[in-house]
Design a protein that fits this description.
Layout lengths: L5 E4 L9 E7 L16 E3 L5 E5 L4 E6 L5 H4 L8 E4 L4 E7 L23 E6 L4 E5 L5 E5 L6 E5 L7 E6 L3 E6 L5 E7 L5 E6 L5 E6 L5 E5 L5 E4 L10 E7 L6 E6 L3 E8 L4 E9 L8 E6 L6 E5 L5 E3 L8 E2 L8 E6 L5 E6 L4 E5 L7 H10 L4 H4 L6 H7 L24
Antiparallel strand pairs: 1-2, 2-29, 3-4, 4-5, 5-6, 7-8, 8-9, 9-10, 11-12, 12-13, 13-14, 15-16, 16-17, 17-18, 19-20, 20-21, 21-22, 23-24, 24-25, 25-26, 27-28, 28-29
Amino acid sequence: MCSTANNAEQPHASSDPALLLELQTRRPPSLMGRAGCETWSVDFSPDGAWFAWSMGHGIVWVVAWPLDSEDSQSQEADRGDKSFSCGHPVWGLAFGPRPPKSASAAQPAKTPSKGNSRLLLATGLENGVIKIWNVLTGEAVFNLHGHEGVVRDLVFPQNGTLTLISSSRDKTLRIWDLSQKGKLVQVLSGHKDWISCCCVSSDCSMIASVGRFDRMVCLWSLRSYTFIRNLTGGTFKTLYLQSSCDFSPDGALLATAAFSGSSWWIDLWDPYTAEKLATLVDYFEDYGQNQISAIQFSPNGLHLAIVTDDRALRIWEPGKKEMMMQTKVDRDSNGLCCNYHPQGGVIAIGTRDGNVRFWRAPRAVPSLCHLCRSTLRQSVSTHQVEPLPLPKRILEYLTYRNIREHLKTCCSSEEEDWKIKR
């Protein structure tokens, strides 16, 4: 068994200026580089006071955030860090419940919320079992059985309930009610192969899931537990794989990521109309050496984080041709997953060697137009916006149809190392 101790290191001078720190695992040399050591999932708690990552070999480590606070530097302070031994490799994890966005917009806590006995951590295992943990006590609450393959992704909707959605390599999504000791509410079937990722819209009306090999982007109703539509459809001659998806914070956009032997791309969809609004494409010369692993919208919806093989992190502002930020070219970065801190400014990247890197993400003050659009679109669908008696330009802005006017394709330049455009 590997040691569960963690080691926080400051970045070296030669590292990217945007790299804040790195958490490294300590394990016997015999386990280094062996299958099972990967960090497949990372997550921040809804209040930002805890951070969890699957550090390989069935171990999940939960640490108090921030790591470099005055309290954490004091040897006398009880940080409350803990590890969970799951017995099998952990592929997905998620904190819950997730309160509504308006309730979680408060300032981040300076110390972990010790009294939040309701904070749970769900861990999806390689053997198909989902283990539910009490973060405060560190005890296992119960196990969820039903999946017949790797549980690849877990998500709690942002409505404060103890509903949990899981996706698996057994081609199904399952909906669980943790308030009833993990009762299985519904099984969603329709994918023809492994499901890579799933996400839930901010109004908790839709679930999106992407199939790695069947190349399906499926939308499901979280209210009626029914299939809505497949956003791709048709027959494709080019072989490619789907890897990730994420709803924008207002639920009006769905981003999906895919890659082939010579390129990766991100599609932006209107989930209500099934219209593809824009596509960001990156081509590269080395065949099969640049897959895209994960994407996630920033908490304010202005940016999209991108994790690929050739760079640890890119930050893209939808609608722009160039990257808002991109780290140095690094073929050894091997990023697998990413997650923004709830208040933004920091993004965590889990790597293939079981470590986690924390990067400084661009901060931007949303415009009044963006705030108005986000507020409106959280509760109003595209079908409800279109009939409004508004000028065409305003309707295009509210429905994000103005994006494609500015976007064609993007080819990353190796001459540009890290930078943040202002």
